[in-house]
Design a protein that fits this description.
This protein has 126 residues and is an alpha+beta fold. The chain is built from two helices and seven strands; from the N terminus they run E-H-E-E-E-E-H-E-E. The protein has one domain. Helix content is 16%, strand content 41%.
């Protein structure tokens, strides 16, 4: 896998799936701690191989028609939230096992509102 973060912001993994977020977390082997949502976003907070992750997406359109994003929630308050290589490899392998294709690893940079620029470090396709 390529460099998780060239800018030092952190690692984002994104893809499309219609699986409910809590089911996706369990299928990936994560321990779900919280499931919540608001007007625009829905999310699951879970423990995954020693790190805290956030699985999220908008719920203003059907789940399979929008990107699902997974990123590291814990880490230094002002530092990069980069996935360690081991948990990142396990995460990508789990998504591949679930036949989720393609999977992007890179960074989502907030632009304005709920819009992001995508920096793709790697595109994984089964």
């Amino acid at each position: 896998m390529g460099s998780p973060s060239d800018t030092g912001r952190g690692t984002d993994v994104w893809f499309r799936t219609s699986l409910p977020l809590d089911q996706l977390a369990v299928e990936l082997g994560a321990d779900v701690r919280d499931v919540d949502g608001e007007d625009y976003w829905e999310w699951v907070i879970a423990d995954f191989h020693g790190i805290e992750i956030d699985l999220c997406r908008t719920h203003t359109v059907p789940a399979g028609e929008t990107d699902t994003r997974i990123f590291r929630l814990d880490g230094p308050p002002d530092g990069p939230r980069i996935f360690p290589p081991g948990p990142l490899a396990v995460l990508v392998a789990g998504l591949t096992r679930l036949k989720i294709d393609p999977v992007y690893v890179g960074e989502l940079i907030p632009r304005r509102g709920n819009e992001f620029d995508r920096i793709v470090h790697e595109r994984i396709s089964g």
